[in-house]
Design brief:
about 190 residues, alpha/beta, Rossmann fold, two-stranded antiparallel sheet, 5 helices
C-alpha cells in the first residue's frame, strides 16, 4: 500500500456514488449519513482510519462485513486491484440490491456484494481472507471472524466502542489485538 493509495481509493470510489439521491449533496460532510433500514454510510474520516489500519495490498482477498451502500466494498476493490477479490456481505436484502447497483458504477468486476446469512458472521466456507473489514460494532471480538483470517492477515472491527486491529502473523499463533480510539457504529447482528 502506497502512502496515497487510500486517498486514490477515495477518488476512484466517490462517496456520492454510494448515497441515496437525497443525501448526495451532503457527500462531503464528514459524518455518518442515513442510507435507510437503520444503517448509515460511515463518516469518511472513520473509513479512512479503518482502511489505513487494514493496510490492504494489491491481490488481497478481502471480506467486507456490513457492506451497506457498497462504498467500503468499492474502496477495498480499488485497493486490491484486479488481482484481488472483495466480497461484501450485507444482512438487509434491500441494501444488498442498492449496494450492488452502486458498486456497478465502478469498474471492479473482482468485487461483489452478497446477502449475509442471518445468525452467522462472515463467510466461513470461503475463508481464509487476507483482510477483514467489519463496519458494525460487536460487543466482543467474534472468534468466528478471527478464525476466517489468513495467517498472515489483518482485521479491523469496532468492538464495544473501540476500533480494534487484529493481526495474525505468518505462524498463525495467537493474534495480536490492539485498540485505536473510540468510535460508534450500528450494532453487528
Amino acid at each position: 500500500m502506497t502512502a496515497d493509495s487510500v486517498a486514490d481509493a477515495f477518488a476512484a470510489a466517490p462517496r456520492e456514488w454510494f448515497l441515496p439521491r437525497a443525501a448526495r449533496r451532503r457527500a462531503s460532510y464528514d459524518g455518518p449519513l442515513d442510507i435507510g433500514h437503520g444503517q448509515t454510510n460511515s463518516q469518511p474520516r472513520t473509513v479512512e482510519a479503518m482502511l489505513r489500519l487494514l493496510a490492504v495490498r494489491p491481490g488481497d482477498r478481502v471480506l467486507d462485513v456490513g457492506s451497506g451502500s457498497g462504498w467500503t466494498t468499492g474502496l477495498l476493490a480499488h485497493l486490491t486491484g484486479p488481482a484481488g477479490e472483495v466480497l461484501g456481505l450485507e444482512l438487509e436484502p434491500d441494501l444488498v440490491e442498492v449496494g450492488r447497483a452502486n458498486l456497478a458504477r465502478g469498474a471492479w468486476p473482482w468485487a461483489r456484494i452478497e446477502q449475509a446469512t442471518p445468525g452467522s458472521y462472515g463467510d466461513p466456507l470461503r475463508a481464509p481472507y487476507d483482510r477483514v473489514l467489519v463496519s458494525a460494532e460487536a460487543q466482543e471480538l467474534p472468534a468466528s471472524l478471527v478464525d476466517q483470517l489468513a495467517a498472515p492477515g489483518r482485521m479491523v472491527i469496532p468492538v464495544a466502542g473501540e476500533m480494534v486491529l487484529v493481526v495474525k502473523d505468518q505462524g498463525g499463533g495467537q493474534p495480536d489485538v490492539s485498540r485505536h480510539g473510540d468510535y460508534r457504529f450500528v450494532p453487528l447482528r
